[in-house]
Structures are given as C-alpha cells and as structure tokens.
Amino acid sequence: MLRVLVVDDEPRQRKILSNLIRDYRGEYEVLEAKNGEEALELCKGRTMDIVFSDIRMPKLDGLSLVERICSQNPHAKIVVISGYSDFSYARRALDLRVHSYILKPIESDRILDCLRQMEEEIRLDRSSKREMEAMAEQLHSLLPYYSDHLMNKWLKGECTRSESEEVASLLQTRGQGCVVLAQFNRPVTDNASVPYTAEDWNEIRGNIRAWINETLNPYGHSVSFYLHRAMDTIASVFFASSEFESCSGSWRCELRRLADSLLREYGIAMTIGIGQAQSDIFSAAETAFATAEVALRCRFYLCEEKIICFDDIRNRYTEEPRGTYSFEAEFKPVIHGLKPLNDADLDEGAERLMGGQYPDPALLLDYVSRNLLQLLHGIRNIVPEEEIGRLAQQIKSRVQPVSCSDLVQLKRQWGELLKEMASAVQAQKDNKNYIVMERCLTYIHQHLGEEISLEELAKKYFFNSSYFSTLFKKYTGKHFTEYVIDLRIESAFRILLGSDKKIYEVAQEVGYRDVKYFNKIFKKHYGLTPEECRVFSGGRE
Predict the structure, then answer these.
(1) Domain at 2-127, CATH class
(2) 2-127 matches 448-538 in fold
(3) How far apart, in whole angstroms, are the C-alpha atoms of residue 453 and residue 464?
C-alpha cells in the first residue's frame, strides 16, 4: 500500500485529484492538505510515498514545500501541478528533482500514466532496498568467516600488508603471549548421554570457542577461531596481561578445568597444545603457531595428558625417527610362524624406533608403514597376489593418523597387521600341507600290505618326524599308528565279508604277517575273532 498526499489551495481541484487517485487504487491512503504548512503537519510521523502539490499557495508555496519534504524524505516521488507554464518554476522543480511537472487543467490519463510510472519506480526501489538489506545481512553473517580466514592466513604467514593491518585491528592489541591450540573430538561412544544432531554439534562448537575465550580473557586478551585445515581444532591467540610463563599459571589450570568439564558434561575429549611464549606475538605469529602445533602433535605419545606445553617437550621432539630397528630381523620369524608375537616385542620395537625422542607422528607412521610393506614384499612368492594386494591396502589405510591417533593404537595396528601377514603365510602352508597329507594317505591306502612307518613317510615327503607326527594328528584326528591299525582292521573286515580268502591271506593283504597278532587286534577292535565275524555275518555277503 502506498500513501499519497495531495496539496492544493483550491478545494475543487484538490478533491478532483484525490478522488481520481482513490478510484484508481482504492487501497491507497490518500491525504489532503490546503497549503504547505498543513501538508508539513501531515508529514510529521508519516512517510509519504507520492506527493502531488500545487505551486502557488498561501503560507508556504509548493516549491518550498517540495524542498522541505525532499530534505526529510529523499525517496518520495514528487509531482508538481501548476496553472503556470513559467520556465523558472519548471527549472526550480527540476533542480529539486521532482518526478513530473504537470500543467492544469488536470487530465486524468496524464495523472494515471504518471501514477503507473511512479508505482513501478517505487516497486523497483523497494525491491532494490530489500536486496541491499539482504546482502548487508549476509555480509554481516559472513564477517566472522572472513575474520577466521584472515587469522588462518596470518598464522601461516600468508597475509598481504593490507590484510595484516586488518588482522591487527581484529586483535586489538600487541605484546607478549602465545598460541593455544585446542583439539577435540565429536563423541561417538556412550560418553554423551544423547547423540548430537548436526545443529546441536554446530552450537556446541560455537560454545567451545566462546568458553575458551571466557577462560583466557581474565588473564589477558584472547582471539579464538577454527583452523580451516582441521575443523576440530580451535586456535587462540592469547595476549597475557602481565609477565607469564606459557606452561604455568592459573590460566593453564582453568584450561584443564574446561577440558574436564567438556568430558564430564558432553563426552568431548579435548587436548590442548600451548606454544612457546613470544615477547611480541604479532611479529612472531608463525613461530608461536608452529610450536603450539608441535605440542599438540605430541599428544600421540602423551595421550593421557590434557595439556601439553612446547617447553616441556622441546628437548625430546624431533622430526625423523632417530632410533635403529630391523623390522626384518625381528618380525620375519613371526610372519613365517617360527616365533610368537607378543606385546613386549611391539613395545621394544616402538621404543627403539623412537630412540628416547618424540618423532613427528606422521613420519613415524610412514616409517612403520614402509617397513611393513617391505615385510609384505618378502612373502610375495608365498602368498597369492590378490591377498598381497589386500594386505598392502590394509597397511596403507590403517597405519595413518586417522586410524592411529596415539602410540597405543599404532602398536595395536602394527601387531594386527603382522598377525594377518602370518595368517596369510600359514594359510598357504596349510594348503600345501593338505596336499602333501592327501598324497600321504593315498600312499598308505595303496601300500597297506607293506611295512609302513612314520619315519619313512616323513622322509619320503621331506618332513621332520616330530613335525610330521603333529601334522598327521592335525589332519586325521588320530596318531599315525592308531590311524594305520584302524585302516588295516576295517579293510580286513570288508575283505572277510566280501571274499572266501583264508584268514592268514586276509592278514597278509592288510599288512600283518603274524596271524595270531592279527586275530588279537581284530578282536580288540570288533569284539569278535575274524572267523567269528565271518560266521556271524553269514559268510560272504
């Protein structure tokens, strides 16, 4: 709805114009004034969208009225209506940027055309205003993200000069301090009583950022923001209000209380890395940030610690693993089943690799991964190519930061992968042993009437006698002697029932030269002598 003001000292002209507008748009609010002063009174507390005004009026003329209205409401659309075609009036009206200058007598079509033009202009103006307001609101909402973007660039030393000036205005101060990195996890266990929705989690992330600032600000001034490359990590640039040491003081205790509270109330585990103190943190931002990153990385080795200070670990941190350790010498026997794997082996291996230092976890993981792949390469001629490929993929995916967030998890993955390689090798051994055992059993069946000993068979198939005995028991469920005896007696039973051969002939056929011994073994097995067995079974079947 638009509000229209008609100003004319001639009642008839004023009424004609007002009624014409009302007939055109019944929803418009149309107000009338008989002079400039009365019009200004109506404008108080009201915003006029369109004003139709005569020029010559008592008390305050039309052009003066237009000037006053334009100063108060520059968006109003003004139409001057005059019975005079004097150019000086028209020029002044144009100087005041009126929309139209219409001469009396009023023509309804001219007025309606003018109204339609002004309606469209007002619609476009309002639409543009709404778009500008929406853009302003959007820019306002994006301002924190832009600020975070600048702070991220600043910590990495990537800001231009003008961007550095913007950062300085965001920080609001300069002086001594440090960078504090707080990394936390989204709960995936039963620590949190209620699973968080995406909306809940975003709210909690915002709260954690605010809580860190609230914790640090009583001791100085803190600006906190999320790191773009690690959205679960908050960086806080902390300016201390007085002399301080980065690894001591009440503010560190308050941070620990905050971490305890997050775990207790939200199930969120948070680790905090405190960088080295800088006398002018603005000019030493990269160093402050790098040392905080180093401190946070060392949670890999100090997973029970909630707060880790660079000053506490600086003498132990190193990039490359400096220890010496032979994976092949220690774990090749494990993979080939010659030695059991125990936790002590893995503990010793990790300690020797670390060499009493805290190497960069990413480089340590890479070192372990490469050595496991080398061990895998050594069994490529034993294990099928497809299984080698699967194990290689497992090593690459499981020995990396996302799967090994601390040393305990690394040793667990390390041990499990060794066991999987050992299982793959054993599976192939078992498969080969199965083939050999099948050949062995076939040989026994085919040579049942001959002298057969475990030692001879072991030698025939290139096995140690003791190992062959164990292997035979594993595959048949019986000891070698027991298996041969059972096979001979059961074969003798079938021959007795299926032929007229004499007892001694049957005994010889199944490998017994001593008939009395054969009878004794047979009776022990079936409860009957061979002769009784044949009689009670009715002879040949």
Answers:
(1) alpha beta
(2) no
(3) 13
How far is residue 44's CA from residue 64's CA, in Å, rounded to a whole number?
16
- Which three-class secondary structure string do you get for 66-119? HHHHHHHCCCCEEEEEECCCCHHHHHHHHHCCCCEEEECCCCHHHHHHHHHHHH
Instruction: Give the helix ranges, DSSP H, for 177-242.
Output: 198-216
- Report the distance separating Cα 52 and Cα 78, nearest Å: 6
Overall fold of domain 448-538: Arc Repressor Mutant, subunit A (1.10.10)
Q: What is the pLDDT of residue 476?
A: 87
Among positive and negative, which fits the CA dihedral 269, 275, 280, 283?
Answer: negative
Per residue in 395-411, pLDDT (tens digit) is 999 999 888 989 999 99
- The mean pLDDT of the chain is 87
**Alpha-carbon gap, residue 355 to 145, rounded angstroms:** 43
Q: Where are the domains of the chain?
A: 2-127, 172-311, 327-430, 448-538
CATH match for 172-311 among 3.30.70.260, 3.40.50.80, 3.30.70.270, 3.40.190.100 = 3.30.70.270
Q: Running DSSP on this structure, what letter comes out for residue 303?
A: T
What is the spatial distance between Cα 461 and Cα 463, in angstroms, rounded to a whole number?
A: 6
Whole-structure pTM value: 0.60
The C-alpha atoms of residue 436 and residue 439 are separated, in whole angstroms, by 5
CA distances from 255 to 231, 249, 284 (A): 20, 11, 23
